[in-house]
Design goal:
By secondary structure, the chain is mostly helical. It folds into two domains: 67 residues; 60 residues. Helices cover 84% and strands 0% of the residues. The protein is flat, with a radius of gyration of 23 Å.
């Protein structure tokens, strides 16, 4: 019996490591698709009943998503910089592993790039409006 358990541990570990990200992505996509279906079903009922579709009515339907609610590049950049700094501190002070804090620097650099692009795009949109 002990040999069976010893051979089961690596199998469960491999399935867990590679299966968990697949499960997480599938769950997120499944519930996102469910929201869209609910919105479109409600919208179809409103169209069939002949009601006038005002912006306020559309916003009251569950599953409605405005373009303004998207995560901005500035917010994404700030989050990535925070994560990168945290990984750098973990690698430098906690684990004393060069690979870990170098990975944190990479993440922080990506965050900085998102932040700079978000500020540039925001300023460009403001200049275009004037």
């Amino acid at each position: 019996m002990e040999g069976f358990i010893d051979s089961l541990v690596p199998i469960v570990g491999i399935v867990g490591v590679f299966g968990m990200p697949v499960f997480i992505v599938w769950t997120a996509l499944h519930f996102n698709n469910k929201k869209k279906q609910q919105f479109h079903a409600s919208l179809q009922k409103l169209i069939e009943s002949g009601q006038e579709l005002s912006p306020e009515l559309l916003q009251s339907i569950p599953g409605y998503r405005e373009e303004d609610k998207k995560i901005s590049d500035i917010k994404s950049g700030a989050i990535l910089i925070g994560i990168g700094v945290g990984v750098v501190m973990l690698g430098y002070f906690g684990l004393h592993a060069t690979v870990v804090w170098a990975s944190g620097l990479l993440v922080a650099s990506l965050g900085l790039a998102f932040l700079v692009y978000g500020i540039y795009a925001q300023n460009k949109n403001l200049d275009d409006a004037v």
